[in-house]
Amino acid sequence: MTCKTAIRAAGMIVAAFGIAACDIPGPVTLPETMAPFRHTLLLDRAPQDAEPVTISYLASGDATAPRLILIHGTPGSAAGWADFLAEPPSGLEVVALDRPGFGDSGPEGALTSLDRQADAVAAFLPSGRGAILLGHSLGGPIAALVAARHPEQVRALILLAASLDPEMEEVHPLQWVGAWAPVRAFLPRMIRNANAELLDLKPQLEALRAELPLIRCPVLIVHGTRDDLVPFSNAAYSAAKLSGACLVETVVLEGADHFLPWNATAAVRDAIARAGDMTC
């Protein structure tokens, strides 16, 4: 492949992700007024890490209240939750993080392992206050894994248009082109890392399947019927696999698409309030 061909292929992939990637419609930059909300956490370095994993995150609300942890999909960043940070839900501290490989978080490359991603999120679980986890799209399986492994610290889980069913994951041929080094070099970081995550997602979700029954907290599944990126059938799959959860409720958003944090903001706020009231 010539350099010109690689550039053209990279352009096609960027265009394809611009149409179909999970979190493109949300804000990608943070309003200047929210700059004081930004913080950075350095995680313990694993033996296999070529560079440190640093997590950039935004926090607002009551720092003594239960913590709502917002986990974006792929690509995405904490800036996508700007509305929820600017007006935090009542009675909650809100923490939105740039997942490893996105936004201002390191490393530069992708961490495709759900295990590693979940470890990064788990570092934000507060002691003694409890946490509500909200995962959108690919953030959903990450949130689920955290809930499965830290039942004593998670009081509720919200799966928002979450991709949990491995049988629903399909790979477009252009994604394999994007993984080829001559093309990958021309891709923006967020697209390059999102592509790596999606290529590895099916086996990651297959491994997650065995851990879903370990979730004990109340779970709220929220999905739109016109989700063209993460099929609506994921909602039924999730409900069926959460056999160990003390309570599972599903909210069906008729006619809603995949981009619920921005196109169905009121419904998401209602879901957060509802999850906060769910008890077993």
TrEMBL record:
Coiled coil region boundaries: none
Top-level taxon of the source organism: Bacteria
Domain AB hydrolase-1: 66-171
Matches recorded under Pfam families: Abhydrolase_1 (PF00561)
Keywords linked to the UniProt accession: Signal
Signal peptide boundaries: 1-20
Name of this chain's protein: AB hydrolase-1 domain-containing protein
Species the sequence originates in: Skermanella aerolata
